[in-house]
Queue: 3 jobs
Job 1
Amino acid sequence: MSKFRLVAPFMIIMLVLTACPAGDDPGTGGSAAPGGSDGGGGGGEADGSITVTSLWGGAEEEAFQAVLDAFTESSGIKAKYEANRTDYPTVLRTRIQGGNPPDVAIIPGIGTLRSLARDGSLISLSELGIDQASIEANYAPGILDVGVVDEELYGIMVKLNSKATIWYSPDRFGEMGVEPAEDWDALLQLTEDIKAAGGTPWALGAGDGWTLTDWFEIVYLKMNGPEAYDTLFSPDGDWTDPTVQAAIDKMLEVLTAENIEGGIDGASATLFVDAVAKVFSTSPSAELYYGGGFVGGIATGADVNPDLAGQEGTAIDWFPFPTIDGNGEGLVTYGGDVMAALVNDSDVKEFMEFLTTAEAGQVWAEGGTIISPIVSVDTSVYPTSLIQAEAEQVTSAEAVRFDGSDLLPADLLGALLQSALRGEDTAPLLEEMQAAMTTAWEEA
Amino acid sequence: MAVASPPASRDPQPKRREGGFQVNWTALLFMLPAALLLLIFLVFPAIFTVGLSFDRGRGGEFSEFVGLRNYINLFTNDPNFLRIGFPPSGALWNNVLWVVFYTFFCVFLGLLIAVMATRVRYEAIIKAIVFLPMAIAATAIGVIWSFVYFPNQNTGLLNGILGIFNIGPVAFLGSPDTVNWALIAVGVWGSVGFATVILSAALKGISTEVLEAARVDGASERNIFFRIIIPMVSLPISVVAVTLVVNVIKLFDLIYVMTRGGPGTSSRVIAFAMYQEAFPAGRYGYGAAIAIVMLLLLVPVLIFNIRRFSTERVTA
């Protein structure tokens, strides 16, 4: 007994000490040294299989799985898909810190891409041995630039959606005797006409701040053009500039208490999907919804109204976001996801190259959940007329601009617009945002 | 960031020894494992976090010393953490609301229920019911109340009830004006049982002779409550209050399950802001600074607690 008394503490110490990690395992390379000295790229050893993570599930996952299958078929490299439906950025960062990153990951947002790239967690395409110039021709101008951090291309845009689409039901428009609008004044008139016909014009899911940032971005782009847009959503952006206030005022011309289903309070408490349902459920209560191209998939999906599937063009359709005071014809905002490599080996290089091919784009497009950013993907492969038209809108646009709030280093715009919607004075809020945003850009 | 009170193993016994300082090797040896564990899992992470809070902390490692910049930004340039204005907002302010209202209502309702329950025959049943939420995990409480608050008259219990009176549906968790109050109400529901049970035990400790003497002397029930019962249970009340304050400064789970800090960032609390900045956003240095602010807020409460425990030992 007395012997054990002396031994026990030492046993515990030994247990604790052996349980401590013995330093970083050199075999796993989250931030592996740049390879490519052999010209063929590839720092680590390829083992004939890759793991890809994203937060897609359901139809989106199926469509992506088809891409992975096509890759395995053409390369012989096994591709395993892992979905993290919740807390995706947290799980991804934890895996990176734990020295066990996936080979390739969809990166949730450009802010995350920027931060991971600067952390040294991502492998740039040039480190992989892929030349940006060689794949540039596959994309519309500017699309690849979204994945550039500090002049290095890290993320490849793999899927996108237009955010210049206003959704409505042609059948119900016919009953009310109204038609889609082509410019802002016509949109205001349309709003009045719907009210006159006894309907409620707009649904709005302002509970999700990003639905309002989408509104702001398209209005700002149409009013001020691509160059001003680029500046605003860059470190040089000035949120106290009068054009910002003007764009907010413009969008609030439509988004008034009388025009929105449930009024301002109701809309503030409504989330995105619920707002879509207000226009497209079996008992609709509003006529118009502005939101990205993905609204079509959600409206015809299990969450809202599966009966609409097959009725595209009659029960559900969209028209392009109108020009504003004659400006903004052919300007389109879009949102999208980028994919980046976290491990440097030849399997990963091959996969990233595959993602830039028309073959991969085509297989993915056939799934009907995305617009492929690859220009040579023929629009006829898209399964529905809605998504075909969306692809045409993007590819034929005069200029496309990426979702600006996704480029910002701090999540402040949504809350500001929610306050603006509730009628708060935005001038002091914009000043506050300018100060916080300046800091956030410095810290990004 | 785990915060725990120091081990209760520091018995006053060595002090009582006569003569000079003597090292009790056996005692030290026995304390060593616990001390080591504390060192590895508490002291080291705390020091690491303090260090990280003065750093940019890219990728969770020391990358660039930034001095006090994280703290300065936190208090002057982050409307999500603290916006000074009327009314103030931000995670820190929300936590102040929690500390004040959650603690007050838990203690107030706990005392009320405890006092009233002692006067009825089915006391045990009442206390069991009030205590029941304590047996439910906070995440489960969050899920239950998400359904209660659901902004639909068919799914949401509360809106179903309001619907009978043709009110609503009200999105309790969907509006920045209501979300914090709705969450605090859930917190109170979950913790009032704790206050009730402790205070009820304290009430039982008041000798009936004192109360009878007061009644014989003609004191009104109101006077008995405020002049006798409250002073006599003031120590348990402060124990309960301090425990609740410590819990609520660390609050995370309810927010994470029910609102994720939303809508927007309007229901964030300090611990949630720390999680959000450090992990999803990857700003580890900034998150560490928030963690240190949380720790500093807890320190006075813990000092108060330790002091009281030591004085208690003297008087007991």
Job 2
Amino acid sequence: MRQFARHHPIWTGLLAIVVAVLLWAIFAVWPAALEDAIGRKKLFLNALFNGITLGGLYFLVASGFTLIFGLMRNVNLAHGSLYLLGGYVGYFAADITGFWLLAFPIAFLVVAFFGVMLQILVFRRIEGQDLRQTLVTLGISIVVADLMLWGFGGDFYNISPPSWLSGPMTTFFVTAVRSSGEPVYMTYPLVRIVIFIASVVVGVAMWLALNKTRIGMMIRAGVDDRDMLSATGARIQIVFVGVFAFGAGLAGIAGVVGGTFQSIAPGEDIRFLLASLVVVIVGGMGSIPGAALGALLIGLAEQFGSVYFPTYAVVLTFLIMVVVLAFRPQGLLGKA
Amino acid sequence: MVALPDTRPDSDTTRDQRMWLERVPAQYWVLGILLLIIPSFASDFVMFQIMGWTYILGLIALSLMFLGGYGGMVSLAQMTFAGFAGYLVAIFGDSAISGISQGWPWFVTIPLALLLTMLFATLVGWLAVRTEGIYTIMITLAIAAAFFYFTRQNYDIFNGFQGFNSVLPPQLFGVDWRGPEAFYYLTLFWAVAGYAGVLYVGRAPFGLALQGVRDNPRRMAALGYNVTAHRVAAYAFAGLIAGVGGILLTWQSAQISPGTVGIQPAIDILVIAVIGGLRHPIGAFIGAFIYVLLKTFAVDVLVALGLSGERFQLLIGLGFLIIVFWSPDGLLGLWDKLRESRRRDPLTGRRGE
């Protein structure tokens, strides 16, 4: 951080200004002139919160993708299918058992199992052949998408959160002040906040596991030099299977989250595959903090775009990607 | 390397003195004559829907084959270039959406559309060549998705969700170019032109340098070749081929809409090129022929087997999966393997391993 500030004083200054403006916009009561110019503060805060929570969801999907890519150089274009599968499994788990929380471990285990199968049956046979891996996983995603359409139909599935999580929650952000001088506080769906906090916890735990534990050390060594690591006697195939299972399981959990946030339907697999592609391209391939930054940026861009210029909201995210690619091809936090 | 004086009076030198017409291999004669006389016995449906569509999809897949096979860059944006050209023809030329279409004559519209498509492909290429391998696939996939969403949202230029309909080819020389026979020959002509063009460029200095860049970019850079420029130029050339295919595709269905440039069609083009094989231009057309046959008749076959016709995508996906898993070079690779195993060793009389 300090090093960055020393090397790039202008960028640091600009960032500081942006952060200050954002903080002011979030906490201050907006003057009438500003509300006239860009709309009510409630709208802004809602877009901000939606963007951040959507970023949390994107992070869950993309972190598994980037982890698998970073360690194994496996491009898993079936990652979106894993997400969708997790959503369906979670829906039926929650529906049958009646416990929303139970949907998470079940989806994690089922999808992780699929991930292990994918790693053992597919990726291990075509290791090191990037293009073939891409094509094979693309074929798998086509087949799996059609099988799921066959099995679950084209309906929208919505996983409903339990009663203690549903409903709005009053936050301490002031959106406006009534004429009586009484402040109006913003309300926001509780389940979204809880899920966002959970994804932050997952992210931090992942970062800690990667940087502070023995297994994390092995994974990081594998990212840097796979052959050297296996030469030192580490059981690299087991690490591979473990990371693949974890990354796939995260996609499954993200599917449950996505099913609770929005809904699960055919076509969502491609949407989330694209989202995680854009997120990891923007953030930098193989970097967990990069995935977090990219997910936050893309989530915010999507939500602010849909509020302030609704026609081209989707195009905005791709524009960010193009700009990042043009000036920093390895991604914002990627290694050159 | 020092060029040794060629003193051997062998077949190589004599063959070069033959007329170029005589040097065309026999298979080409058979195939060419067969393709030329198809309209004399085939139905309108076969000519227009099956063969015409095969040539068009083959052209678009050919542009991907050129990039992937000669340049080592697998782009998923080829359908986007094709759709872009189709859109431009609809915007500058005539369509039912008179509020947007300019109604310019064809000799302005078509060159302009192709030129702008090349420009677009150059821009995308300039962006895509900053990355390598898998990243290229992902970036072009993202560009294809962005273009799809853009055309779906933009109503001022691209007419949004509906797109353009009644986009018809010009009535040139008093011929209705959308008639089955005329359209068959039109698409055949452009398919052959594209095929010959790719073969020619592949053997020209530019194509050879491009293949060198594919195999070893660092060595080519050390030899003084501009690696990036060659790659971007390959994108421009591929964009031209895809653009021609896109205009023909628009004329064939007489409409262009965001559905034409969606993510699924973009992936289909990759499937076509890979099924056929990325090593030789003919692979694109073989893949397109199989794809069109499947797309046209798979529903009947599936229904006959007692499955629902909607499982077409499953059939295509499984076929694609089997081919890429067991033969990365597509059907052409399978063919080569078959020939290799059938060949007898002239000395021992044994079959190849």
Job 3
Amino acid sequence: MENFLEEVNKKIHGVPLQSCYHCRKCTAGCPTASHMEYNPNKVIKMIQNGKRDQVLNSKTIWLCLSCETCITRCPNQVDIARMMDVLRQMAIEEGVGAREKNVLKFHESFLSNMKMGGRINEPLMMVQYKLKSGDLFSDAVMGVEMFMKGKLSLLSPRTKDIKSVKDIFEKTKQS
Amino acid sequence: MKVSYYPGCSLHATGKEYDQSMKSVSRALGIELKEVDDWSCCGSSSAHSTNFDLSIALSARNLIAAEKDALDVMVPCAACFNRFKMAEHHLKADKKLKTKIEDVVGAKYQGGIAIRNPIDIIYNEIGIDTLAAKVVKPLTGLKPVSYYGCLLLRPPDVCEFENYENPFMMDKILSSIGVDIKKWSYKTDCCGGSLAISKTSIVVDMCDKLMSAAREAGANCVVTACPLCMNNLDMRPSSGLKLPVFYFTELIALAMGLTGAKETLKSHMFDPQPLLKQLQLI
């Protein structure tokens, strides 16, 4: 049976995590490292040490912004940004869920909105997110102001061949 | 020149100022835009954060639609640009994945058209001299810092943009329309992107840091080429730190005296009009 490290490496499908020599350049450049409980290079070490539950249940993987600074600066081309995507997907697939619940709820609202119209209808997507997260009142004043300035269009055009978009969702659905 | 045009979802909503100014600047510079037929969302952060195959397939659907016109595709939104380049990268590098994605989308991907950002097209195809020759009102007194953000540049081998740690194309474009561009070290720092809604306090901190740095550099405004950076910088900084934020195309439109150039300025959340009036630019 594959161990955690082998499994993650296979999914990253690039430079193996063993190439990391912990110079911490990724962590030094990471804009959200100060909000994470484990720094990016620490996550690599934890994967090497088989700390599956701690990694998949960490805030870190959900606070990664995919700004790609880490992979850009890594002297060994370890794709840490891709690693974070892989870990988020494993957390979802294995039913661990997201330690930062609202981050995943935002992504789910976004994708469910896209599935309806092929394109994002921003006001509707925000309503979906607010209902899902229960965070009803933050940004409400800002939302009204945006609406007054015509930045939120309720009737934005949709993709006509919506079936082709729904098919993509259907065919890539994880078991 | 003629290019395919992929506006993306933001440019039809919160980023409409970018779409409008992009279109009028393109017309004035002789770039003919042909919108990609029946395009759909690129997938954005939400797709690649949760499902790799979905993220590649959603972008591939649009690239395949764009290929029908056999023109380079111009993608103004930095996030859509990044997702398209990422899909192209993976589809060209991994034959097995390409077959799988073609089956998901139900069409063949050729990979024969270039995915380009308008900064690259204006700088490399139109040229700074041509642009400068069309300026009727140099934007004297405007002191911006240029803010490129993440997604135009990184990862560099995927995005293939120039000088990924210290890019200059947008700086040169802006200098040619008469602004006094300020130097700073935050050109390629992150604004907080998609965490703006779900982890707002982190994004406020990040935007405050950027605005403080812009002020320290002596800037009186910030210029961007990304609708997500615009949203965050225009709305999220603490009130005492805010500065007007412009799309680079809005400033080109203003300097070229194009019809409608003043209209897009009215829908910014932090009103840039007082600064422009004070400098007698509107």
